[in-house]
């Protein structure tokens, strides 16, 4: 009886946000991140199974639903490998077939040169990783130097991500608890991302250097972590808020009928329900933290991280073109490690993502 | 099996629900909606009462007010002699909605055990009670499944088991079988009758189906819309066993006719809509809905 559902729809749910803002934030988030809206939630018709399916069918149903899931994951990996192979092939084919000076139309070079200086062979880049960084005696191989830099950056990005997580979830909780806070805070949170803090990295660093509270002294890496957290907190705050607000009225009313308070409803209902929204937000936040850390390292000139190595080796590219690609590979691996960690988190939380499966 | 509560509800205990002069108006953008007006209703302990009426006549609203999920604009509600709010905090009632409303990340067993868990029942006692409830609704083998692995009817049975978890003396059910096919529905009705007989619970049952109301109830409350009022309370004289054979009994058909006539009488302008409703057709609620928006 669809009329019942319609009546439910008429009721302004207690957790419906301010209409304009909510969509604005949602739209922003969707564009930036593709944080998927787990379809089927809040839509009684779309949830569960069509009525009247008899129990007999269930065993088959269950299997039929699980197989595509495993296959889908395999497919993702296959697509990834295929894409990588395609890039390598296109790179080498272009290098082989295009003129050495690239393609120039009307004095404009629309396609790059194919010399070894501009486009080293993929295998040269890979081989370079295993050669020493410099010609000096006992120098470490390039991959070790890049790896050490990537670890430093990873550490800074992780700190930034954690700070972003705490701040983002904290803001989401405040906005969840007080409607007024949502009205007051959400526009500022969205506006905050229009301030390109990353461009002011050197200024942030110089502010930081003035901070000294008791025995605590602001280190340069903290400025980088701060910028990383600034980029990370936004998707986390928005994703957490949407996730915490996602339970249907029927669920919140059930909790009310059990006579439990706001905190226990939060722990038993809202937090578990937020997982499908939170995971993509965490992934996006982590990616943002890595980008923020690398770029902030570049612009503040912080020693030791991947950003610095990137600039340094690029400066040496005229003499050693393949070397500049080392830190680029390092950055790619760093991104994969971060994305993989979040994916692992998703595996541990897989029962909380069942809505996604259901959708 | 004890079927006594269908015939003669015990007079010694306090009434399960007493609704006195309840009005409910909603303030909406397009003005006030008069959902309920002058509702007086008493449900005795162990009694099964159905609410029936055209769509939008306030059945769900009345049930939500009894459950303290909504407040009446005027009048008062007592549940076992206490205020509705106190009864909610004391867990005097169990509730089941039209949708199952299971938590998707919990197994069937964990969903059924949720109210017990929230109210501090130890895990051993909880497991025993959950096993008992699951066998009652015939889902023992599905204890470790997740809701998305169940059919709609099975999910609904889990929700019913959950509403029974704390052996409430009052059950509030809002079209719990609305999403089920006719066969599952009849089986669930039979199960509900059996469960009520076992637990001696009073039931307030919202439905759109006249046969369902007649089959299950001691009394059927017929409501009319705009404003929602109690049109008539039809006592069912079907004392005796609620068995499958009752569905073919002449008294059963007489009672169906009685309820249908009460529904017709209550809505002079809306003959088509109530006529449709009387046959149990879902489509019939559309014209009623349409009228509402005018
Ligand atoms: N939160 C609300 N705000 C405004 N109007 C409401 C609200 N809840 C219910 N109503 C209105 O109150 C009236 C009664 O609604 P109710 O849900 O109780 O009807 P019902 O009898 O349960 O209908 P159905 O059989 O379709 O479920 C309807 O006109 C509905 O539009
Ligand atoms: Mg209703």
UniProtKB/TrEMBL annotation, chain B:
Signal peptide, first to last residue: none
Keyword Transport: yes
PROSITE patterns: ABC_TRANSPORTER_1, ABC_TRANSPORTER_2
This protein's UniProt keywords: ATP-binding, Nucleotide-binding, Transport
Any Pfam family the entry gives: ABC_tran
Superkingdom assignment: Bacteria
Domain ABC transporter: 17-250
InterPro entries: AAA+_ATPase (IPR003593), ABC_transporter-like_ATP-bd (IPR003439), ABC_transporter-like_CS (IPR017871), ABC_transporter_ATP-bind (IPR050166), P-loop_NTPase (IPR027417)
Example of a GO MF term: ATP binding
UniProt cross-references to Gene3D superfamilies, sorted A to Z: P-loop containing nucleotide triphosphate hydrolases
Name of this chain's protein: Nitrate ABC transporter ATP-binding protein
């Amino acid at each position: 009886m669809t009329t019942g559902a319609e009546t439910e729809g008429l009721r302004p749910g207690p957790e419906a946000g301010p209409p304009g803002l909510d969509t604005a934030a949602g739209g922003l988030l969707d564009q930036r991140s593709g944080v998927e809206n787990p379809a089927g939630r809040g839509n009684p018709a779309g949830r569960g199974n069509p009525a009247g399916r008899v129990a007999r069918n269930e065993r088959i149903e269950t299997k039929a639903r699980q197989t595509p899931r495993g296959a889908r994951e395999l497919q993702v990996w296959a697509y990834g490998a295929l894409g990588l192979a395609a890039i390598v092939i296109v790179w080498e084919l272009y290098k082989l077939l295009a003129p050495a000076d690239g393609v120039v139309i009307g004095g404009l070079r629309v396609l790059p040169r194919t010399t070894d200086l501009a486009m080293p062979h993929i295998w040269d880049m890979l081989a370079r990783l295993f050669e020493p960084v410099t010609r000096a005696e006992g120098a470490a191989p390039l991959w070790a130097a890049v790896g050490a830099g990537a670890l430093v950056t990873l550490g800074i990005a992780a700190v930034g991500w954690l700070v972003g997580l705490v701040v983002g979830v904290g803001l989401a909780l405040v906005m969840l608890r007080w409607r007024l806070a949502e009205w007051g805070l959400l526009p500022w949170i969205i506006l905050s991302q229009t301030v390109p803090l990353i461009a002011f990295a050197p200024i942030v660093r110089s502010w930081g250097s003035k901070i000294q509270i008791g025995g605590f002294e602001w280190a340069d890496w903290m400025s980088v972590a701060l910028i990383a957290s600034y980029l990370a907190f936004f998707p986390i705050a928005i994703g957490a808020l949407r996730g915490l607000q996602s339970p249907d009225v029927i669920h919140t009313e059930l909790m009310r009928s059990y006579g439990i308070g706001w905190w226990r409803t939060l722990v038993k209902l809202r937090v578990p329900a937020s997982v499908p929204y939170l995971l993509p937000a965490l992934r996006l936040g982590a990616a943002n933290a890595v980008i923020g850390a690398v770029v902030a390292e570049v612009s503040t000139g912080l020693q030791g991280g991947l950003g610095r190595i990137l600039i340094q080796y690029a400066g040496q590219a005229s003499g050693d073109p393949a070397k500049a690609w080392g830190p680029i590979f390092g950055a790619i691996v760093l991104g994969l490690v971060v994305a993989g960690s979040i994916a692992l988190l998703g595996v541990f939380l897989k029962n909380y993502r069942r809505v996604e499966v259901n959708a | 099996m004890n079927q006594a509560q269908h015939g003669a509800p015990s007079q010694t205990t306090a009434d399960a629900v007493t609704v006195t002069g309840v009005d409910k108006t909603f303030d909406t953008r397009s003005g006030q909606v008069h959902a309920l007006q002058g509702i007086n209703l008493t449900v005795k302990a162990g009694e099964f009462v159905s609410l029936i009426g055209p769509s939008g006549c306030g059945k769900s609203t009345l049930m939500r007010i009894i459950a303290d999920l909504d407040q009446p604009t005027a009048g008062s509600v007592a549940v076992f002699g206490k205020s509705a709010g106190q009864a909610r905090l004391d867990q005097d009632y169990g509730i089941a909605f039209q949708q199952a409303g299971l938590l998707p990340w919990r197994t069937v067993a964990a969903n059924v055990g949720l109210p017990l868990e929230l109210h501090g029942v130890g895990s051993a006692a909880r497991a025993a009670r959950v096993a008992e409830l699951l066998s009652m609704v015939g889902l023992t083998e599905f204890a470790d499944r997740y809701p998305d692995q169940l059919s709609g009817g099975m999910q609904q049975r889990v929700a019913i088991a959950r509403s029974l978890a704390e052996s409430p003396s009052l059950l509030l059910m809002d079209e719990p079988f609305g999403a089920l096919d006719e066969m599952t529905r009849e089986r669930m009705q039979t199960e509900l009758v059996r469960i009520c007989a076992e637990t001696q619970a009073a039931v307030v049952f919202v439905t759109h189906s006249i046969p369902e109301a007649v089959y299950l109830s001691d009394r059927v409350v017929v409501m009319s819309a705009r404003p929602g009022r109690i049109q008539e309370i039809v006592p069912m004289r079907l004392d005796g066993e609620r068995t499958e054979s009752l569905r073919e009994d002449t008294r059963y058909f007489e009672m169906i006719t009685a309820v249908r006539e009460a529904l017709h009488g209550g809505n002079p302008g809306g003959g088509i809509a109530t006529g449709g409703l009387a046959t149990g057709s879902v489509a019939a609620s559309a014209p009623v809905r349409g009228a509402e928006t005018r």
